[in-house]
Specification:
This is Matrin-type domain-containing protein. By secondary structure, this protein is mostly helical. The protein contains 21 helices and six strands. The chain has helices at residues 3-26, 32-61, 66-74, 81-98, 107-110, 124-131, 145-152, 162-168, 182-202, 208-230, 258-265, 268-282, 287-310, 312-326, 330-345, 352-359, 379-384, 404-409, 414-422, 437-461, 474-482; strands at 246-248, 253-255, 390-393, 399-402, 463-465, 471-473. Strands 1-2 form a two-stranded antiparallel sheet. A two-stranded antiparallel ribbon has the order 3-4. A hairpin with a 5-residue loop joins strand 3 (390-393) and strand 4 (399-402). The N and C termini lie far apart (100 Å). The model is unreliable at 117-125, 232-242 and 347-359 (pLDDT under 50).
Length: 486
Amino acid sequence: MSILESQRYALEDLDRLEKAIADRFLDTPRTHRDRISQEHEIASFLDRIQHQSKFLLDSFEDAHGERPREIANLQGGEISQFDEFYKQLKNIKDFHRRYPNEPVENLEENYRKKRRTDDDSPDLVDTVDTMFTGEEGLGKYFDLIAFHERYLNLRGVTHVPYVQYLDIFDKFEQMSRTPRDDEYFKYLTDLSGYLEGFLKRTQPLNDPEDMIAKIEENFKDEWENKLKQNGSAENHKRSDPTADGFYCDACEKMFEKQTVYDSHLSGKKHKKNVELKEKAVVNGASSLAADLKAQAIARREYEIKKLAEILEKIREETKINVERKSTLTLRERQLEMEALEREEFGGDEDDGEGDQEDDGKIYNPLKLPIGWDGKPIPFWLWKLHGLGVEHPCEICGNFVYMGRKAFDKHFMEARHVHGLRCLGIQNSALFREITSIQDALALWEKIKKERRAQESLREQAVEVEDDEGNVMSEKVYNDLKKQGLL
């Protein structure tokens, strides 16, 4: 195939790919399965566009000079135009003589919408099914059961149920007693890889590769800044660059309070571990290996935290689903599975009239939300749930939530929690229904005052008596004793 024909073919392919993508976006998916299948199909088209665009850029640069040579031949350069025409015609006839049964490639057929009823087309639904496990529900939920079992087998961790593990699998400050050994690093690597794969499988159109690359860049910046502050990775508090506490590298332990950390430094066990580490360095072991190990563990923990933030909604849905399934009987689970199968496959068993109706535009003058069947929900249902009532939230950047249900649900979502963190507020149930920044700050100040008052009462609750019979609080007694006044 000549270079001009290759370029023409690639340009035609790009036009058909753009039309195919536009057709997919105009077709509203009925179910979650259809949406996932559609997004992966569009993602494959986008990959094809990138491949063809790269080929066109390389061919137009024409490092070997084939394009101007071929144009010159067509214009009657070294040989006449008719000779070039008959030469190409002869090549075409020779090709069809050698391959008489060669099928004609139909680009329009290649990018046509695939239906489940097409026996001769690839079964895209089966491809989507193989991407997810049964527990994941086509990307609706996490499947961290295997990681929960591996977490329980780590040393120094507290045994927690699966529902609680979904809350804490990215909170590594609670694993301060876990040694940072090879088993722990393998657990982090596999968990990070699962979350990356889940993001790619469920959000193929959100450029997951770019999101993961940004996480890597942010980690490198934070790690370098932390090393500049501390001087070395050995003096790092903890492998996680954003963690709070005091990390002992010799004993591989995390301490929350300065006083406990200082008393630990004078202990026999700590001194023994320090001597062993010094001997290892003397014998030829390099501290660079320890720095690289700390950095590798920190990278995995950082990736897991950031990916968990991106997939926070999936985590909440998973917790709800696990708690709900724990209350179902075996019969109820079977009925639920049958209902899901009918919902996913029932819509495509209609005759041709249904397909013709799907190809038409949906009449929706009131701009009502689209239901599970791909059609606007009834107006009475829209009014019943109050989906026309706006609920703005100043903490979320004046984002407007339509309907009370979405408004109530957003208080535990990532956007609202991030807004509270930007204000320096720890989220709790007390801040529910509060959408004003001023009200949230006022309540936070009140909570901090109450905490300080409770701490003061707690310190004064215990009274002690000195040798002379003077009664005082335990705090005052300890202060006077340290000063040598008793």
